[in-house]
Amino acid sequence: MKELNIVRGDLKNKPESSKQLINFFESIKNELTGTLYIGYPIIGTSQGGFQIDALLLTKEKGLVIINIEEGADRSKDFVEIQDENYTKLSSKLLQHKNLTEKRNLAIEIKTMTYAPAWSDSNLVDEDYPCIINNVQLSNYIDSIESKNSDYFEKVLSVLQSITSIRKNKSRDYVKSETSKGARLKKLEDSIANLDRQQSSAVIETVEGVQRIRGLAGSGKTIILALKVAYLHAKNPDWKIAVTFNTRSLKDQFRKYITLFSYEHINEEPNWEKIDIIHAWGTPSSEGIYFNICKDHNIEYFDFRAAKSLTRIYGREFDKVCEKALNEISDFKKKYDLIVIDEAQDFSKDFLKICYNILGVPKRLVYAYDELQSLNTKTMASPEEIFGDDENGFPLVKLVNETNQPKQDIILYKCYRNSLEILTTAHALGFGIYRENLVQMFDNSALWNDIGYKVAEGKLEEGEQVTLRRTNDTSPAFLSEHSDTEDLLKFEVFKNNDQQIKYIVDEIYKNVHEDELRLDDIMVINPDPITTKNLVGAFRQKLYDKGINSSVAGVTDSPDIFYNKDTITFTGIYRAKGNEAAMVYVINSQYCFSGVELAKKRNILFTAMTRSKAWVRVCGYGDNMIGLKEEFKKIKKNKFGLTFNYPTAEEREHMNIVNRDMSTQEKNRVQKNQQNLGDLLKDLNEGKIQKEDLPKELIDQLRSLL
């Protein structure tokens, strides 16, 4: 099926002519296969970034550079402009060997000028066509034909700067054609280009708030880095901030923004104008919150001090943001653009702080995946987050209007996880094959948004439904590199010693037989409190076999996640936003049951979806047996999700059924740890369930008894 993707970049100085050009191509979009870029690309030259007004790349017509003229001004030499456009783009493409034949560019570049306000009708020239109306434009497009459509994908990859990422990790060392290393190389080469939603997310610029929603592996972090590099190249005077919750993302963002900036402006980005900055911050490491306290002369709270503001673990940052927001009546402008990754981890107060320190227009881009929330927060609507103006109208309302840049973008394709891994992660995360569901979308249509289709039944309240992913949302090449039994394994052990031996032996095999690099392997512990101490035994056994390892944020800088010379051990919070070819999830029994089950299941979902090839879910004891039983049901259903969609009333009670405790219940447990009599009374009366009790308290009770 043919369809032209139209990506509306920033071309403020030529609004009317570019609008007319878009309208023309909208009318023929079902006749072409490819992309029309407006205000893109920006090409790095020795003089800085050079912007092309519009670029058409299609399988049918090839590559056409379009110079756009606004108004009736004829003072510019359009012949000279077309020559410069040609020279700049051909020079960029000639740098890539796969686009050349001997010394010449393997593809033909055509150039034209589109000037709908000009009156001359005799400017159409074979070498320098100047088109002044859509009849001429239609005739011109009809007259051209691509002679080298085989290069379409390769050219697209260069234009999107994706080649920079693919060059970043060489696998020239691979010797065996059938090893995991060889399969991984082919897999990485297969992810060549951005899809239409990703392209829109990078280039389409909103003079206000833009929201990007996407499941794990949909490319959000790379898209945001590309967006920052693109907008920095176009607007070098803008002060831009990139912020996030996971500190190890800082190194990723800096690396990608640097790579992409060389593509756009041929030089290192101006780091005086770009802050890659943590959300919280400290006096020794700046953050959005720390800086607003300093700039507005209010008290700053670090994590330890923030504990005094709330009894709820995990809500410390929410509380300090709420306090700061209430104390500042007049915010000072700090940035022209703020980009927020991992927005699902932040309260609406933090997002409002970011909104308030922006100049007008309020350029704020926030990206999130609710299923990766490790604190059971849910994203509020933009109207609720940003509030109303003095007249009672919402400050932010996201609407995708025809022929306008998209304000709300959904990335429904997953380019990291195979269908088998992603569906299993969703099934476990929601508790699809438990006796009782753990959690569920309030709006059933969200299943479609994250790439599932109804295979059987009805996606309606009270109805049984079977949902499956398709090749459109989970590309087949992500699964085809390995057998299903190798893609995903659940391993149950009698004790931790057996678990350690298995993982150490498997990692040794990965390195010495499978041809995986050390930084292809990540070991994730779901319980963040125990990671530092628990992984010591694993690391010692690996060291005894000559394999080095590191603990993310402990043995290296908190801002660095990967070290190419070590296996990375990590807790779940630092794992978020990162990926590896082989992921081992240890002590997975932690996620099977107990207090805050939705949070634990989200942790398991997040851990599994760090993998771009293989997953090993490991653990020991009865709870791990229970987790593997759920997995067996998923496999039996051929990686589909079959369940009864809960009614509104059932959804209201799901937290009670699955023991996601309210604040009142949590406080009662904390208080009763000091009062055994009240605790026994509440257990007897059913006010607290035994599943709510922390393991260490149960151990204490057993010891006392």
Explain what the structure shows.
The chain is α/β, with parallel strands linked by helices. It has four domains: 4-159, Trna Endonuclease, Chain: A, domain 1; 196-411, Rossmann fold (3-Layer(aba) Sandwich), CATH 3.40.50; 419-650, P-loop containing nucleotide triphosphate hydrolases (Rossmann fold); 661-704, no CATH class. It has 28 helices and 25 strands. It has a six-stranded mixed β-sheet, with helices on both faces. The chain has a six-stranded parallel β-sheet with strand order 13-12-14-15-11-16. A hairpin with a 2-residue loop joins strand 7 (100-101) and strand 8. Helix 7 (196-203) runs parallel beside helix 8 and helix 15 packs across helix 24 (622-636). The longest helix has 17 residues, at 78-94. The radius of gyration is 27 Å and the shape is globular. The relative contact order is 0.09.
Secondary structure layout:
Blueprint: E1 4-8, H1 15-27, E2 34-38, E3 42-45, E4 48-51, E5 54-58, E6 62-68, H2 78-94, E7 100-101, E8 104-105, E9 109-114, E10 130-131, H3 134-143, H4 152-159, H5 162-166, H6 180-190, H7 196-203, E11 209-214, H8 220-234, E12 240-244, H9 249-265, E13 274-278, H10 288-296, H11 303-306, H12 316-327, E14 335-340, H13 348-356, E15 358-368, H14 382-386, E16 408-411, H15 419-430, H16 446-449, E17 452-457, E18 464-469, H17 477-480, H18 484-487, E19 488-493, H19 496-512, E20 521-525, H20 531-534, H21 536-544, E21 549-551, E22 567-571, H22 572-575, E23 580-585, H23 597-608, E24 611-620, H24 622-636, E25 641-644, H25 648-657, H26 663-672, H27 676-685, H28 695-704
Parallel strand pairs: 1-2, 6-9, 9-10, 11-15, 11-16, 12-13, 12-14, 14-15, 19-24, 20-22, 20-23, 21-22, 23-24
Antiparallel strand pairs: 2-5, 3-4, 5-6, 7-8, 17-18, 18-25
Helix pairs in contact: 7-8, 8-9, 12-13, 15-23, 15-24, 19-21
